[in-house]
Design goal:
Two copies of one chain form a homodimer. Chain A has eleven helices and 15 strands. Chain A is an alpha/beta fold and about 350 residues long.
Amino acid sequence: MRNIRAIIYGVGRMGAIATRLMLEQGVEIVGAISQSPSKVGRDLGDVAGLGVKTNVLVESDAAAVLGARAPDIAVVTVSSYLAEMYEHLRLCADNRVNAVTLAEEALYPWRTSPVLTAQLDALARERGVTITGTGQQDVYWVNLVALMMGTAHRVDEVVGRVSWNVDDYGPEVARDQHVGESVETFARFAAGADRPPTFGRNTLDALVAGSGLRVASIENTTRAAVAESEMYSSTLDIKIPTGHVVGFTDIDTIRTVEGPVFALEMTGSVYKEGQGDINDWEIHGEPDLRVVNPAVPTQVTTCTQLVNRIPDVINAAPGFVTVDQLPPLRYRPFPLGAYLAR
Amino acid sequence: MRNIRAIIYGVGRMGAIATRLMLEQGVEIVGAISQSPSKVGRDLGDVAGLGVKTNVLVESDAAAVLGARAPDIAVVTVSSYLAEMYEHLRLCADNRVNAVTLAEEALYPWRTSPVLTAQLDALARERGVTITGTGQQDVYWVNLVALMMGTAHRVDEVVGRVSWNVDDYGPEVARDQHVGESVETFARFAAGADRPPTFGRNTLDALVAGSGLRVASIENTTRAAVAESEMYSSTLDIKIPTGHVVGFTDIDTIRTVEGPVFALEMTGSVYKEGQGDINDWEIHGEPDLRVVNPAVPTQVTTCTQLVNRIPDVINAAPGFVTVDQLPPLRYRPFPLGAYLAR
């Protein structure tokens, strides 16, 4: 068995958790990349709040770090959408480094950003590396649901209801969820032709593709989640006045050529006291099925899936490989290097 | 695409449901086997209560049916334990016919019946066919739990609580659950050295093996479920007096060499009015996780898993292949023949 050598690419809230998990699972971290002036030049252990030095300094020149350290993989936690992720993932592939990311759109970007995805896929194939998007969607919103569907004789409709706490994922995600905006500003975003894809749509695209079905039509409704009294966003450190936006709910619906309908209601918002994450899926058909996670520690499971997927991504065939094409995610009782294919 | 040709081997309660599901999923049924004098010689459609003729007669000579019809697979629903299943599965393999069964012990029989399993494995390899045990345990008790474990950083303990209604599975299973016995008779069974393996143990063996862990110790506690007032078993068509056995609960615990502990409390009993099936699993570790199916139509999902697994079993490498080694079960919107490997 050999160690896996990884670059942590982005050391925000998620990157910090992933760093600890990787170190505890026997991954050798051979580089850390950030553009933040407050992080560059410091020890990764300090930036990630580990309480120990890692003897890895955070650096800003991504190409230099990727090119010089012979890593097996880069663990990329930078932003949510493929347009912003493209250059980061391109740099990884160009330097012959596999990449796993929790960028939400990267879960299944073939239909929402087909050109960028095809370009990354072609480059990854040429360079012999794999790019995969994972995170909370991987098991809880896609593979768990696909597995339950596997126990159905006939599926008419798949209906999911999920929620997550914006404050768990850092300021980048909170700004993408329009936390603190007026409802008027939010309405212009929601109505705009250039709004980015919903995470729900990428989730449903993965479910539909993984079932071998074809998309007939797509519908989206978006509604703001509004503060009923003054609220506080810890990740942005701002107070949100009554009547302002604390996040939003997307309801995405995909009808398939073959018949089954897939719908997902996804809420990402600042939470009230005592509010918890939801993961609740119903399958209507023969028979009716339902699966629920009564309490989901989404912040942590986002990172555990990112890290536990590392060997699957290294082992996968080259290209942009989505999680519906990977083996089912499995617990890793041994150091991650033990799961590398011979 | 070609049709899958199947033999239905055993046409009791489960075989009847499986027959309908197979026909609706484009499987060609080329033979039906039963030892029951009340079924032999009749049309399978009548025996299975389909309301239509299938033009397949139920026959009693298993070897002749398996040998003459060139089936791809036999769907075997005869009994629960490998000692009783051995000859049926041997006949399938000997005739170069793949076999999928919902015999509970067949889910993972390598530790409870190692010699019989090794013999079947060797014969299946020699004849180039696959034998697999599936059923409710496949997704709900093994692969669903393994998938959730895949989102854990560290697993200390996996604790499952499941139940099923004895009356859903026919008289053979009800007798195996000792329905109607006195508590004294049951106590002799539970204390006996020759009692068959618990289904819980086979389930946990599959989970442990699928996680790459090794069994350190096994513990079992069995307690009778007792009628608090007179109850009725529909599958046996008997009244059960107050104080007599309506089924039982097994609590199996496996400790592993590597640390994680697996425990399963499984109850199979005649149900009271309004009682429903339970499937509830907790994973204690980092983080704590839980998955629940609020209502499980176990009778149907037992058969859907049996049928949806057919292409996986035909596609698998030869031998006795357990479900932890198969691809994740998936919904089959197209005729089952579409899922055969090229």
